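User: For my dataset I need records formatted as: sequence, then structure tokens, nothing else. Please produce one.
Assistant:
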Amino acid sequence: MSYDVNPIIDRLCELFPTCFARTAPKPLRIGLGAEAMALAGVHPALTDLTRTMIRRALKVYTNSFAYRRALVAGGPRYGLDGQPAGEVTPDQQAFAKTCRKKPVASIPPASDDSASSPAPKPPPIDRMALLKEIIALAIPGKLDVTLKINELPQAKPASAQTMLFAVQADGRMVVVEVKNKIWNTLKTAAENYPQWVAAITGKMGEGVQGGFRLEGPAVQVFEKKPKPDSAAAPAALKAPVPASASTPASTPAPASASTPADPAPLPTIDRPKLSLKGRGGPPS
């Protein structure tokens, strides 16, 4: 509990003017704090105060600059009755001097390797406060969920126009209800494509056991073609040439997957023979 102790100090100065003073305080005798705290709730002028309140007021009073200066000057100490009770020792005078000095921050000398000195660690981040601040700055957006399947799921009719099936995706159960047209698209892909993948996109709906329902699903189906081996890539990329009756018998057989294919022979072009008759040339 925080409160202002200055009114309590002013009250002590009024009750014990020969002991407490704001402008010219006197060194207090050793043990006066316990004596003053014992008056809390007992003295008619201190009935509303507690021991803790008086202790905090005395701490502020004895840490003031004026009180420290009185200790440095030395001399007798005084009790609540204003009578001398003890002396300020030289050690206490030296202590009062050191307590008022403010520590001077030492500046390290400049050196060539100052840049390599480790930088001070930043204070730890309050992640909960950061999370609240980020949530307060949220912008509107749209959340879509995409499922990917490569086999036809087991489905049951949910109505005359829809089919219902479930997908176990990353440990969560997703229930999907699609129209018959979309279901037929999935069936066609499973029947005609050796390898295929379907992307089912929709919104996260109501929760179900272990997951949620997918609302407004839309489906895209892609055929996956196996990648050719690097050794057989040239032969695989070359379109096969069908054999015909005009193909010469000496045409080499097609190269196997393990043998590089020979380049196809260039076609022979029949050129007409030139005749020199009637052109004044030498007899043939």
